[in-house]
Amino acid sequence: MTSSIDRNTATAASPVFDLKAYLKQYQQQVEAALEQSIAVVYPEKIYESMRYSLLAGGKRLRPILCLASCELAGGSIAMAMPTACALEMIHTMSLIHDDLPAMDNDDYRRGQLTNHKVYGEDVAILAGDGLLAYAFEFIATQTQMVSPDRVLRVIGHLGRAVGAAGLVGGQIVDLESEGKTDVSLDTLNFIHRHKTGALLEASVLCGALLAGATESDLQRLSTYAQDIGLAFQIIDDVLDITATQEELGKTAGKDLQAQKVTYPSIWGIEESKRQANQLVEAAKAALDPYGDRAQPLKALADYITARRN
Ligand code: FPP
Ligand code: MG
Fold it and tell me: Residue 155: in which H helix or E strand, if any?
């Protein structure tokens, strides 16, 4: 297989990329696919609860990263849409569980009451479980125009990103670190590389895997994804201090209240922003060989530091 790098486009003059229009168009397509992904059948309560959180809006960043990465590697939106939806299902389930009283005990998410506040803790736990299992079923049964070996790689990669080697591992170190004032930068990086970074990286890599990307493409995309993953979390920590509850759609100022060690608590706000910008520049540089074809992923990297929620 040839590399996805097109050396002709790499040197061509870049037209201005309209990220706002791009996000609007891709968000609409993802919303429509998510809306159709789960029907309400008997026993209705569990499907309603799964849909309540899945369809509560959100930036849909993970699905869009997956679609953009698939397109960069030469694939189509149709090939990646089931995986894109699955990524949002997994992200949503992790937030439902993260908000539970046994974890962060939060009342608001995406501008509305958290799942357990509406449906009760028992149903919220099951809604998360249902979304997690369905995500994998959805990829396996809905992916079309992709060979089974690629789909298998995607499922394997995603499973690893979600389990103890990824999200779950990051979350447990986060929980263990709560209330401690001597959390090191290494531990903080471990938490975020796993809790947030692993699924963001999986979003980018799964899109590329579906398109049959080469190992060197995957390497570059992995560098890009790890850098934006960390930048995303640094900005999340900054926004927890600087943004309002209305902007965030969830309770603001929680890290300070919980006396959590965060990037701003170690570096201060300005240095945190500088570090995030540096990571975004490095992420974009990793995609330079793709020329204009990398414009969507590069613009998405900028969006991560410029966002207000
Ligand atoms: C939000 O972090 C939480 C996460 C990014 C993931 C949490 C992971 C779990 C609950 C494990 C889920 C289980 C599986 C099987 C995936 P945060 O609390 O720092 O941010 P917030 O302010 O948005 O709540
Ligand atoms: Mg939380």
Answer: helix 148-162
